[in-house]
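=== Structure Prediction Worksheet ===
Name of assembly: unnamed complex
Input type: mixed (protein and possibly other molecules)
Chain count: two
Listed entries:
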Amino acid sequence: MKSAAPPLSGKPRLTTSAMIASIAGEGQKTRPAPFGHALVDVAKSRPDVLGMTADLGKYTDLHIFGQAFPDRYYQMGMAEQLLFGAASGLAAEGFTPFATTYAVFATRRAYDFIHQTIAEEDRNVKIVCALPGLTSGYGPSHQAAEDLALMRAMPNMTVIDPCDAHEIEQVVPAIAAHRGPVYMRLLRGQVPVVLDDYGYTFELGKAKTLRDGNDVLVISSGLMTMRALESAKALEADRIDVSVLHVPTIKPLDTETILREAGKPGRLVVVAENHTVVGGLGEAVAGLLMRSGVHPAFRQIGLPDEFLAAGALPTLHDRYGISTTAIVFRIKEWLSR
Amino acid sequence: MATSKGHNRELAERAYRVRRNAVLMGEVQGQGYIAQALDIADVLATAYFHAMRYRPDDPTWEGRDRFLLSNGHYAIALYAALIEAGIIPREELETYGSDESRLPMSGMASYTPGMEMSGGSLGVGMSIAVGMALGLKRKKSDSRVYILFSDGELDEGSVWEALMSAAHYKLDNIVAIVDVNNQQADGPSTQVMAFEPLVQKLEAFGWFVQRIDGNDLDAVVVAFDAAKDHPEPKPRIIVADTLMGKGVPFLEVREKNHFIRVDAHEWQLALAALDEGRLA
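=== Predicted Assembly ===
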């Protein structure tokens, strides 16, 4: 059992970030429900595209699709195993279901159903999951710290971790056009818009350099790319020159680009991910570098291998080292050694 | 087709040949879920030679009725029926369960023509059936989804999720068959987990339920016909009580096991027993 919280010292204590907490920083530019709107756009010309959920339509922005196409929207009840089995059946009949729930319920509760009825049968199902990694302060029941590890271990599965609204809007048509099962991490609600400032376009399977730098190479995915870019800006003040390589497709990994970038001499390579340090992008990159004989100085930023605490996201991101402040601190520390 | 006893000779002959095919495959491997294959042969014969619509030379024909084998270990029985139906070439019988064969011990969609899903992990088939049935309705197809699963699978919560949703969506294009042979891995199914009273449970879940002797061909035919013709917009399920080893008397009385022991010399004896039953 945890010990009692220390008494308040004037500063207001933050409250729990539950299911609809935004990851947007104060004053950050955002767009609402980018996934829902992008799916509606795709579905206008693709009658095979369907929406399915397990009692989390409103919490995965799929309700936008449901309002636009009520007869193409399937409520499967709070039953994730049914959700993915039925999605497999619809895909077998030629449809392209986008099935949504929280990342924990897809990857942990329904893993065998996704494995057997979707991946093994190579069904054209798109699994789109909110609350990936540490994006809820509700506690381990809703914190999918290991979702990428589980999904990238599954043959046939394409795994995508988009950074922001700009990218989500491009990922949705790309995975609809791609034939085969896909797991996509979802940011929902008011989602920050960041990558449009970098002239970025998403390509399935491609890692892209968002900024170049001579001292540190940060390899990141998902919302950690946002944090990496903020950290890189902050580190300019210390004359630390940071390159950011964004890797939205976790599987199949863009090995060519990663090896080329990590192979450039003289840079500390840091992989930053909103995921446990076990089995995610960090270990995927580490394994690739080892197998390829590329041996830069290498560090990992990620969630610890422990059950994470409940609380407010800013507090938790600081505590577990994935906030911008924490990243800046760690990189300076590593470089000063 | 007439359904009174004696008029189903053609179907009885089909059931005999399904059993025979299964025993021949068991002999190839020297093992197999042969007792289950023998108990379900009458149901499969009725499905493939009375109820279902399909084209043997085009197993993915859009207008076919779908047959889902949720209990993948019954693959030996389904292969036997698919061979008899001309969907799998008879020569492949010799390859059953061997390396490189299209007929693995556990049924998988990626291996075998006519196999619509990958079983093995028990309890997943009914959810796939729900999705297929929804898909067929979207396409305004009049094809049906037949799904076979086993009484042991009733222990899996996911089966009940799917049963509930099939009634919710009024999927009257599903015809489920549950094989109640009262045997699962750890013993008699009713002792492993009390699933009775099954008819009342399924009715409470919103299904049109019939309970029959699954080894009485006439009863099986009547039940399949009624499942087609029933007017209510409900999914349909046939609870088929069956006898493991049916048709081979010395296997019918053998100590009941999920994976029944058959000695090398007994495969030929089993074939002889089937032939005897056929003449009778």
